[in-house]
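Researcher: Go.
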Amino acid sequence: MKNDEPRPFDLIDQPWLTARTVDGHPVELSLAEVFERAHTLTGLVGDVPTQVFALTRLLLAVLHGAVDGPRDLDDWEQMWLRDELPHRDVRAYLDRHRARFDLFHERTPFLQVAGLRTQKGEVAELNKLIADMPNGHPFFTTRLGGEVSLSFAEAARWVVHCHAFDPSGIKSGAMGDDRVKSGKGYPIGTGWAGYLGGVLPEGRTLRDTLLLNLIPSRAGVLQRSSSDLPPWERDPLGPHEDAPAGRPAGPVDLYTWQSRRLRLVRDGERVTRVLICNGDRITPQDKHDFEPHTGWRRSKAQEKKLRRAQVYMPREHDPQKAVWRGLQAMLPGAERAQDGEAAPFLAPRVLEWIAEVEEVIGGDFPVRLHTIGMTYGSQSATTTDIVDDVLSMRAVLLRVQDAQLAKTAVTSVRAAENAAQALGRLAENIATAAGAGKFEKEAPRARAIESAYAEFDPLFRTWLRDLRPATDPEAAATEWHSTADRAVRTLGADLLRQAPMKAWSGRVVGGRLITSAHADRWFRTALRNALPYAYPETDQTDTEKDKVAS
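Model: Structure:
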């Protein structure tokens, strides 16, 4: 390389991936080093949580290619029984594709299009590349007020993230793309991962995490064809769309889906500008046979629109709900079709895979369900929030057969929901007794329900984490009902202590006297119905007498 030539940035050997060691130390590693040291790392660390999701899936694509599989459970088990990943195979694989992992290669820059340009030669500031989150507040606030630039390592991470999570909206129009009109690329949707409610199971180390997510082609969990390849094993892309029939070809195709056409602009040793244009369009309907890292929900609206008997859409995360509240849709053993209908939810296929290998890893193996997702604003043209939550459990809860513990976990979530609603009705009845009108009592009710979930959150996570293969399901249910009962009764007592004096005298509503004392009695009855295992000697026929319509 001549002195006046810009230096390359080889992602195979140059550090650009941030990770944390098992001792808690942050490190920045090259692609080859991450695989060599995966057994000493707890996992990747991103500039934003969604980077972890996108970059981990990139590592999976590399690992699938390096081992040419795995083909089946036997191949996978052999990998699991080794202490380290097959990093020599990974190194040989990366060497074969070295030209595709240079961030600034003249012809094949990493996940970019060489020579990409618009008719007028415009390029954009880096806020088009960096996730401007959350709620319009940039993460890189320390860079505001001046020219924003990125190191080559940072830019590489954001390129991967852009393909996965870039918002929809109007893009720069690339020369050579026949979809461009008046110099603009009109919306084709978000990056593929932007459609997903991401679920990434994690183990003790990055080595464990990658293997837990490395689903064999013949496992019967996902569909994979011989053309299920990452971009670096395909011909270099041009500015035009390149998504022929038969794609996606499998999970690797989706892990690395090129939803955008990009080109980084460097100035010396920094990246200062970027060009982002439309790439390959993809729609989210019925990709559950290819995409393992999200749950799915049946969509009646899509069935009507597409005139199909059943259509499944990715089940996105709700930023307002803790992950454990959606447990029913995540656990493979909990989903059930009813009355001959197709199942309303499908669990993430990666969790079905872990259920299949439970005998290999052990039912007591700790699995962290890392839920990651991005939410978008109007027309999905802006980012509004990032979902990032972790739920710890043992592999036994992912069983499809003999899934009593999973069912106990799901019914315990419902019990918590019913108890929270009971507290909400208590707050509503106290407000009614104090003279609140129809709309005035909604706020106390909502606050009470929110306080119940906040109180339940650490308690449920601890309870769920402690469920093990030898745990008796009924004993576990009794423990949770009793724990939840104590917590919500304390909150109820606080509401009653804070009730105004006029709530104790009450008022007549609809021909019925409502006082704080009545509200308390109805609340206790509702709790006995919501958490019956906390009241083993209660005669349920007696509690029926105290039921009050809410």
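Model: Residues 215 and 338 are 29 Å apart (CA to CA).
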